[in-house]
Structures are given as structure tokens and as C-alpha cells.
Amino acid sequence: MGWNWFPCSALCLGLAIAVTPAIADPVIEYGRALVETNCARCHAIGIDDTSQHPEAPAFRTLSERYPLDALEEAFAEGIYVGHPDMPEFVAEPEQIAAIIAYLETLQD
């Protein structure tokens, strides 16, 4: 056998360990679930998808427009700005923390 499986196995294990904490974090998963339910109809909520609404920014680019921690107040008070037909969205503190945690995983 000319193929050495050890380096491939070690690489796969290393990648799994590097990726698992972000995926397994229940706060981040809760944030992802919240944006899937409330935002995905218009916004791109992943790392390479496209916003369905032409005026809805992709979540992976939000930090280019706003400091993410500044969005906490907007979520707490209810987001009234955005694209013109964006529904009002008000979040509870634990939801805000989860959404921000998820958004942070998407930024460059």
C-alpha cells in the first residue's frame, strides 16, 4: 500500500477538533436557529448564500456596516430600519446574545 493513512487521519481529526467547538456551542446554534426562523426569508444567513431580498444585506457582511455589538441595542429596541418592507423584530436579551454570537462566526 503506497498511501499513508496516518497523515490524512491526523488532518481530518485536527479539522474536526478545530471546527467542533463553534458548531457544538449551544448559544451559537440557538442564534443560528433564530436567524433561520426570523431572517432567512430575506437575508443570506450563511457564509456563501445569497439574500433573497435585493435590499437585505448578507449577515456575513454586517460588520462592514455596523459594529456587531451596536446591533444589540437595535435588537432590544426592535429593528425598524433595514430594507423598507422588513418586519419589526424585537428580541429578548438571551436571544440577542445568541444572534450576536452566531453573527460573529460569519464575519471575516
From TrEMBL:
PROSITE patterns: CYTC. Residues 1-24 form the signal peptide. InterPro entries: Cyt_c-like_dom (IPR009056), Cyt_c-like_dom_sf (IPR036909). Gene3D superfamilies: Cytochrome c-like domain (1.10.760.10). It holds the Pfam family Cytochrom_C. Keywords: Heme, Iron, Metal-binding, Signal. The keyword Heme applies. Residues 26-107 form the Cytochrome c domain. The keyword Transport does not apply. This is C-type cytochrome.
